[in-house]
Amino acid sequence: MPHPILTQSDIDTYQRDGVVIIRGLFKDHVETLRAGIARNMETPGPYASNNDKAGEKGLFFDDYCNWQRIAEFQDVIKASPAAEVAADLMQSNTVQLFHDHVLVKEPGTTMATPWHQDGPYYFVEGQQNVSFWSPLDPVTDATLRCVAGSHLWEKPVLPTKWAKNEPFFDPAPYMPVPDPDAEAMDIREWHMEPGDAVAFNYGILHGARGNTASARRRAFSLRLLGDDARYTQRPGPTSPPFPDHNMEQGQRLRDDWFPTLYTRP
What we know:
Layout: H1 8-17, E1 19-22, H2 30-42, E2 60-64, H3 71-79, H4 82-90, E3 94-105, E4 113-116, E5 124-125, E6 129-135, E7 144-147, E8 160-161, E9 166-167, E10 187-188, E11 197-200, E12 206-208, E13 217-225, E14 230-231, E15 260-263
């Protein structure tokens, strides 16, 4: 039986479309995550960015890989049902932690989160994976937007550097970044309350508009891995980079760096 927060329809939708909304996944942990984000912004990590882009206004802060130093993130990763829900959505017997990610758009921030797939930035291959994107403020226009089925495209989308709009790697193996609105793609987006979560595959094309509202938009993301996740070499440095990991092609990600959060009974 799936976790009580899920229905079989949720699992079927995730398996088919690569994206589904999970209402209330982090509803009991919103204040803890807000405190963790405040701590993260007060003491940014080495990968933090304000995404300063010419011609854009406001502040778009993002940072990742901070769960080991921010107790609030650790608490939520352990206490929330996210890992068990991930196992059901991925149809996996195990769930490993990949990384956390914080994204904050202050009021009046015009910069959009560009359309992208997470997978091409990562040194992970496999279909059993899931990202949870959870707003800690009510969101309407600044919510996450996902192109259903894009995790099944024949070629991945070229990863880019957000602020500079430059290719992250040589473009040869990748397809150009499409314009889902202009191309009338099947874009899924939802009005969301704090603690709701969008669950999406690493191969799903997604983005978000700027935040023109009068309130900030804080979001916490959690990236998890399933049974078939394996290390793969990319054409250049990955994001996150995880320097000196010493893993080899086809190896399961090392458990001391990427701990197992859940094992199905």
